[in-house]
Amino acid sequence: MLKSEVMSPRIAWFNFLDALNLLIKLAVVIVLLGIAGYGVKKAIKHTFHDNTDFRLQAIKLTANDTLDEAGLVEHLEIDLAANIFNFDVDLMQERLLDIPAIRYAKVERELPGTLIFKIETRKPLAWIASLEQQDSRPVRRIGALLIDHDGTTYPCPENQFEQAKQLPTILLESDSDHPIEAGLELKHPEYRRCFRLLESFTNSFPEDVSMVEAIYQENPWSVNLQTRSGTIATFGLDDHKRQLDYFGKALHHSRQKDYEIETINLIPKQNVPITVSEPEAIAPRAIIIKQ
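-> structure tokens emitted (291 positions)
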């Protein structure tokens, strides 16, 4: 079957007029939609953004140990005379999460004029520092690095210092592949070994964590725990429960007999070597105690 179409100038002209008519109708619809959109936008702006009823009247901030209202206003550069609909709450949340000590942030509007800031801060587990830094400046201070239970480091806020100054310090060798930087999860291999010992100590002596001055890896097979009284206890990389049980007994015995433990190596299961000093002793003496 052969199909043919005849095209004459007259037919082409009518087709052109039909197409032009359609384009005009589409243009009219687009213009009307634009006008309607502009009108809606103006109405929204007039009803909400330019309405003085929605001027910022109050700020609600959940209690936390990192940021107060004055610090919040300064950090977010909040215009206290602005309309609450002029604030980008998503951007505010992002800027709050830029503070390493804050682990969760949510910003909401409450009509007619309140901004609500829900903040959760990181809870410190220990101080973190390199062995080199320990010799150059105090580790426990406002702005020095803390680490939380998730392994994220952050500068110590002023309001956390009184609580945090009782925490132990984990000292690590400098490692360019695993830098110690605020706001990052610490991947340093020595940290996990030190953390396991601190975790075991906390489980065994939950009320005595403040007696720990520092924990650091002494060599590939042992980790040292130094108390605030100066005792240096050497632990293996595992079997911490047994070693801590004996460590507690040794400390109890030293208090009863009025002597100080200088060093104790808890890795051996028998004949644990200890060096001690007595109040009137000229020099420390070494003893071996059988378990």
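Residues 124-289 form a domain with the Rossmann fold fold (CATH 3.40.50.11690).
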